[in-house]
Amino acid sequence: METEVQNKMLSDADLIERVDANLRQFLSFGMWRSLGEAVNYAVFSGGKRIRPVLCLRTCQAVGGDIEDALDAAGAIELIHAFSLVHDDLPAMDDDDYRRGRPTLHRHTNEAMAILAGDAMTVQAFRLLAASDKHPDVSIRLVQILSGMSLEMILGQVHDTMGDLPEEMEDLERLRYIHNHKTGALIWASVEMGAVVGGATKSQRDALVEYAGRLGLMFQAVDDLLDVTQSAEKMGKATGKDAEQGKLTYPGLLGVDGTRAEIDKLLTQAMEALSGFDAKADPLRDMAKKLATREK
Amino acid sequence: METEVQNKMLSDADLIERVDANLRQFLSFGMWRSLGEAVNYAVFSGGKRIRPVLCLRTCQAVGGDIEDALDAAGAIELIHAFSLVHDDLPAMDDDDYRRGRPTLHRHTNEAMAILAGDAMTVQAFRLLAASDKHPDVSIRLVQILSGMSLEMILGQVHDTMGDLPEEMEDLERLRYIHNHKTGALIWASVEMGAVVGGATKSQRDALVEYAGRLGLMFQAVDDLLDVTQSAEKMGKATGKDAEQGKLTYPGLLGVDGTRAEIDKLLTQAMEALSGFDAKADPLRDMAKKLATREK
After folding, report:
1. From B109, B132, B157, residue closest to A34, measured CB to CB
2. Interface mutation vs chain B, best among A39, A118, A134, most B CBs within 10 Å
3. What DSSP state is assigned to residue A248?
4. What is the pLDDT of residues A95-133, one digit of tens each?
5. What are the C-alpha distances in Å from A85 to residues A82, A248, B106?
6. In 10 A of CB B190, how many CB atoms?
7. Nearest to A70 by CA among A116, A132, A26
8. Is B225:B234 a contact under the CB 8 Å cutoff?
9. ipTM
10. Do A123 and B150 touch (CB under 8 A)?
């Protein structure tokens, strides 16, 4: 009971501090010199830690203790960070800046960025398996994270190489890519938090429904920011999507249409949480915050 | 008892057939179109499957059933295959051919090779977690494979970027790199087979001792082949090590010195198996076969 009260009072900043402390300690083992430096550069880069926070808040929403979900939260962030490092590579999106700093391959070199990304992937699974206190839970987490990471990679293939069937309509194609590229890890964050927190089957169904809406919303907001914000404010190149002829929400629905889509997704995300008590409030706040991220 | 007799009679070719059938079935799920093709191109490329066979033979050596170790064997091969794909990339070893065929980035493109390698890594852990019959064993396998994959990546960093302390002597440096780059997955193959087969602590210690010698021997033979064999016979560029100024056994010990080193490692590997009965004969044969690979 005491733990629950304590958990409730924790701000997102508190959660991020705990996730980072746990990750920092974990990454100080088994790494060495330049590889360790490269991994740390990529992982501790001022990211918003949306996925780990989502994982911990979901664990709380079903009455779990966030301490039990710290490894899961860190593992998701490692997968997210690896995907950014590899996506930024010259052969992929060829980005020189991220969050206002040189991307890892610009900071070090391409070989190191490839290897550091590989190391982060492996570290994610090593972190999930680090404790054998509850092997049945741990193995379920490995199942979810590996499955969803694969979906994410598939999304990146389709986004980069346009490999979807020709007969697919643009909006369907866009949703497919977003569901995979961004949605999969959001889904994993929520499902892993639910599993660690001991969610019932019906709770888990509702939570992953929430996650699905959140994932689409997240990318719609991202697309919108790409057209409405300046590069300076974003800390990375903007307007790149249109330049590269990528499918985006604003490109298909216009700016106003995209805002309407975001509103709809927010409403659906909130509805999915209707059966939860106040312990799910941080999840509700998170959806609202993400929806209004552009302001 | 019947299973044991059956297992004993299986040739390496039989084992490889089973590993491949299991992998082929696993990889037909969750993959799609070009990403699936790329992964299959890299995984089914006529590799010798030394690691999976080693895993299954170790499982047999301690009285286990090879059926139980097929997923572990496949997972190791996926990690091995991913490492080759990424090592071949232009930013790394920049190899155009492997096993007589274009490398994956030459067959497709760089972005696809990066993503397919990522997908293989993730698939390896998905395969280990696919069954939740024995979560305690599965999570132990995830621990071993993730830990050893990290060591392998570290070895590649040191090999590619020469990041070891300057005061380290050449032979020590060479052994460090080989122990990591090649030895780690050989070690993982043996330890995972031992865990699945239910090895005792002392059996496992002896088996990983065997694996350590085998790993060093494997790379020493590889180095030797690089200087003594023609490119045609190897199906890849040879003489590259010397050209790139890499540390090699023949470079440090000469061709004869390398052969003596291989003999010594073989003897030590056989000694490590002295406490095992005839069920470990395939492991003994394997060591001998690997030692004489150059002929």
Report:
1. B157
2. A118
3. -
4. 999 989 999 999 999 999 999 999 999 999 999 999 878
5. 5, 22, 22
6. 30
7. A26
8. yes
9. 0.93
10. yes
